[in-house]
Amino acid sequence: MLTIEKLTKYFGGVPALDEVSFECPAGRITTLIGPNGAGKSTLINCVTGVLTPDRGSVRLNGTEICGEPAHRIPYHGIARTFQNLALFPRLSVLENVLSGLTVEAEKGFLKSIFRPPSTRNRERRLRLKTREMLDRFALADKADWPVSILSYGDRKRVEIARALVSEPRVLLLDEPVAGLNVGESAAIGAEILRLRNLGLTILLVEHDMDLVMAVSDVIVVLDSGERIAQGPPQSIRHNPKVIEAYLGRMSLTA
Amino acid sequence: MNRKDRILYFIWLHRTGLTIGALGLGLALFPCFQDNPYILGISNLIGIYLIITIGLNLFIGYAGQISLGHAGFVGLGAYGSAVLSTDMAWDPWLAMVLVALLVALAALLVGIPTLRLSGHYLAMATLGFNIVIYTVLIQWDRVTGGPSGFAGIPPLSLMGVPIDSEFRFHYVIWPLAILFLTLALNLVRSGLGLGLAALAQNETAATSLGIQVSRAKIQVFVLSAVLASIGGSLFAHCFNFVNPHSFSIFSSLELVTMVVIGGLGSVWGSLFGTALIVLMPEYLEFFETYKDIIHGLILVVVLTLFPQGLITGLRYMARLKIVQRRKRANH
């Protein structure tokens, strides 16, 4: 369970997050929604250590992880994807997904340059694990392609595969279906549900309301850095505050 | 799998080891066919430069950083070895190791503040470092001999045999160069190597996967400085004379040219680029006179056509061709 408590972050005196608290129950999909500038990305960045919050705490099963440097976060079993794809364009599909196993890779400098059998075996094991992940995401026949020539949908899948290959306990998905067509979105939605059924705790940030309503167990609504509502999809859909702050504005522009 | 397939698969599986073996064998036999000391001198020079460019390529090509100051580290290695083995009469090998350790420390101290910078700023900082070292080498003439250089450096010796001919030096420099080449190839295939390539392309994503970006950059910077220092020490013992002008910022640019032409992020590319730049003035006379112009020209042409350098760029193109052909075949 991921617990976020009174998380506060100011940018030059302006609160981007103002005492936001909520929980992501284990094995459930918690979705964060809100209009642009609501503080969703700031929240994700605070949880993953990219930003240091001014106040508040983030706990994973009771362990405080707030304030830890970003490169330590994956060691707690937290993996993420990015709003705008953050792949390594010149590396192959296989290498991109393999990089998701950094936490398990050899860290010792001497072992890395002398490659004793133990290091080789470990590398072989990690590559095998990567191949399995590629199979699961139907990327196996593109393993050696540089990701820069993949379609957008394929790249999204590579990024999710990279986040999942280390078998994290918590997965943070930042707009996983943005820019995908209906069919591709549905496929990602099905995959997200499958992951939940495997026991993963998921924090999803998404604008696509069809997907949000279809997969969420709990929805948390942010507006101007404050949590204005929280509950199951049905209650959010009919919450007047949410309609005014978010869906209302959206229906006006639509 | 039939027999032919199995052999081909074996070759593919062990391609790195087999290439290293073939290169080693070729170099071991080279002096049997070519005993002209002048030619061996050139190939030895390639070996010395190769040790330096392997390290620099890890820093520039893999980790995606820039250094216009590595000749400074080469100079520290060369002069460190010169002073310790001549004035203090230390054993040259011991001096080389000690100097490399000191240079590692220096690189750590230089790297911690400067590697927070990137792009132009890092280029300027490393350039500044090189100028400081160069100025010290010229001005501190009581120790370094000043602009006229440092003469009388003893040759290396191995089990009592002085390494005082190009022929003997060949059998010292190339085993070392191949050793470092192998270690570098191992490093880039490891998790650490993948981490370097990752942080070069997207630092935020690399961090989110557990790569400690600042630490990894400093590690590879120190490693490249150590290799530069060892190259410098070998240079001093090979020529028995060093001169500050060999370690100016122009030498740093030459090192970068070798790395870029060969291929950013290709260990084998370093060998190609280094050999090309060392050999060219030997075979093209006009090259010597217009060296800096031609270096610049090559750099511009290569970077325009292959921003990743020659070997890496061609390899990438070949990869794309294969993929596209397979794609078409599937449709």
Describe this structure in words.
The complex is a heterodimer of chains A (254) and B (331). Chain A is α/β, with parallel strands linked by helices and 254 residues long. Chain A has a domain of 162 residues: 3-Layer(aba) Sandwich (Rossmann fold). Chain A has 9 helices and 10 strands. The model of chain A has no long low-confidence stretch (mean pLDDT 90). By secondary structure, chain B is mostly helical. In chain B, the strands form 2 sheets. A two-stranded antiparallel sheet of chain B has the order 1-4. Chain B has a two-stranded antiparallel sheet with strand order 2-3. In chain B, helix 4 packs antiparallel against helix 5. Chain B starts with a helix and ends with a helix. The interface between A and B is large, with 41 and 32 residues.
In short:
The complex is a heterodimer of chains A (254) and B (331). Chain A has 254 residues and is of the alpha/beta class. Chain A is built from 9 helices and 10 strands.
- Average pLDDT number of chain A: 90
> What helical percentage do the residues of chain B reach?
over 70%
Number of strands of chain B: 4
Do you know the CATH topology of chain B? Answer: ABC transporter involved in vitamin B12 uptake, BtuC
The CATH superfamily of the domain at 2-77 and 168-253 in chain A bears the name P-loop containing nucleotide triphosphate hydrolases
Uncertain parts of chain A: none
- How does CATH name the architecture of chain B? Orthogonal Bundle
Number of helices of chain B: 16
Order of helices and strands of chain A: EEEHEEEHHHHEHEHEEHH
What is the count of β-strands of chain A? 10
| Highest-level CATH class of chain B | Mainly Alpha
Q: Give the overall shape of chain A.
A: globular
Described by the principal axes of the CA atoms, the overall outline of chain B is globular
Residue fraction in strands of chain B:
under 5%
**What is the CA-CA span between the terminal residues of chain A?**
36 Å
As residue ranges, the low-confidence spans of chain B are: none
The multimeric state of the shown protein is heterodimer
Average pLDDT, all residues of chain B? 90
